[in-house]
Amino acid sequence: MMIFRQLFDTDTSTFTYLLADEQSREAVLIDTVLEQVERDLEIITSLNLKLIYCLDTHVHADHVTGAGVLRERTGCRTAVCASTDVQCADLAVQTGDTIDFGRHQIEVRSTPGHTGGCATYVVRDDAQTLAFTGDTIFIRGCGRTDFQQGDARTLYRSVHEHIYSLPDHTIIYPGHDYNDRVQSTVGDEKLLNPRLKTSISEDEFVGIMSKLKLGMPKKIDVAVPANMGCGVPAAGTTSIGEVSPEQIDALGVFHLIDVREPHEWEGELGHIPEATLIPQADVPKAAQAWDRSQPLLIICRSGRRSLNVGEILIGMGFEDVTNLTGGMIAWNAHTARSTS
Predict the structure, then answer these.
(1) Distance, CA of 28 to CA of 41 (rounded, Å)
(2) How many helices (H) and strands (E) are present in the chain, helices listed first?
(3) Do 3-210 and 238-339 share a fold?
(4) What is the β-pairing status of strands 171-174 and 184-185?
(5) What is the average pLDDT value for the chain, to the nearest integer?
(6) From 235's CA, which of 54, 85, 105, 211 has a CA 20 to 30 Å away?
(7) Cα 190–chain centre separation
(8) Per-residue confidence at 276, pLDDT binned at 50, 70, 90?
(9) In the sheet where 3-9 sits, what is the strand order?
(10) For residues 239 and 229, what is the distance between their CA atoms, to the nearest angstrom?
(11) In this structure, how many other beta carbons lie within 10 angstroms of the beta carbon of residue 160?
(12) Are strands 119-125 and 104-110 parallel, antiparallel or unpaired?
């Protein structure tokens, strides 16, 4: 049997799934959450697993993926649906692609509709079939279709052609649940889903979705740009300030936050003595206690992770957040020039 864990982030009601092969110990994570990276790594270590893939079902609007951080820390490869145009992903997957871990195989099914680039991942484990559907279909519900190139007709067809075509006993594991339910089956959703049971026509479904009056996800302005960069904002999307080492007159005006990992802090690039080490995944929790008016200078190796953290802090209400352009690489180069 495959090793399986269903994990949950209470802040965003997001499920993350850990799959692993018992013999090879190769593991896959589906739909990680940045704030839960340490939890995920602890489980992987405790089970003596090797993370080889992080898969996202789509570009999330309600949380930042942990895929980029996990790639940096474990060397795993990241994957997302090809139609998302996420340039940083190691794999741009589409219908018919397969992803192997040990003796197990993940089948990719493109299921757009919630967004223009959603995927469902199907795994067959002996007699069981498991479908990780992201936001395409929930337990007795489905993802919204009113933003990120969403389309109700497309979602209806995705569900009927690529999920309801699976055997009725297929276990559905959704991307979210808001009612303390953890799984369903294809057969149950065909019969009981109030939006997508098989007695509901495509036109009726479009009518149901058009009547929903939903507010925008509270993290969308931060999450989407960050997720287009695997957890790092895409170029040109950042709203935080930038400052190069040459432009800093006095470090004392900032609270310096170094968001690298402990081994980097002690590594060849060293660290700025005035800085505080808080790894990227730990920042959102730590920042809850900070003064939101205090000027912050965010530091990492090259300036990319710090952009991500800066966007998160802006989304949390911090008023004065600046990124150290070029990170510690640029800082060390500037220091060398200044002392030569």
Answers:
(1) 12
(2) 10, 17
(3) no
(4) antiparallel
(5) 92
(6) 54
(7) 29
(8) very high
(9) 3-9, 14-20, 26-30, 50-55, 77-81, 91-93
(10) 15
(11) 15
(12) antiparallel
CA 1 to chain centroid, in Å, comes to 27
pLDDT, tens digit, for every residue of 306-340? 888 888 888 788 889 999 999 999 999 999 888 76
Between β-strands 184-185 and 296-299, what pairing exists: parallel, antiparallel or unpaired? unpaired
CATH superfamily of 238-339: Rhodanese-like domain (3.40.250.10)
pLDDT at 234 over 60: no
C-alpha span between 188 and 171 (Å, rounded): 10
Taking CA atoms, 200 is separated from 28, 140, 191, 324, in Å, by 35, 13, 10, 54
**CA neighbor of 73 nearest in space, from 97, 46, 106, 37:** 37
Q: Which residue has the tokens 């060398």?
A: 336
Work out the pLDDT band at 134, boundaries 50, 70, 90: very high
* pLDDT digit string, tens, across residues 19-47: 999 999 999 999 999 989 999 999 999 99
Residue 232 banded pLDDT, cuts 50, 70, 90: low
Domain boundaries, the chain: 3-210, 238-339
Residue listed under structure tokens 């079939």: 129
* Residues in contact with 70: Cβ distance below 8 Å, sequence separation at least 6, in sequence order: 29, 32, 37, 40, 41, 51, 54, 76
Write out the E strands in the chain.
3-9, 14-20, 26-30, 50-55, 77-81, 91-93, 98-101, 104-110, 119-125, 128-134, 171-174, 184-185, 241-243, 255-258, 276-277, 296-299, 321-324
- The pLDDT tens digits for 169-222 are 999 999 999 999 999 999 999 999 999 999 999 999 999 999 998 888 877 767
Q: Which residues contact 64 (CB under 8 A, 6 or more apart)?
A: 33, 34, 219, 222, 223, 226, 227, 231, 308, 312
CATH number of 3-210: 3.60.15.10
Provide the 3-class DSSP secondary structure of residue 5: strand
Question: At how many degrees (to 10) do helices 220-227 and 304-315 cross?
Answer: 160
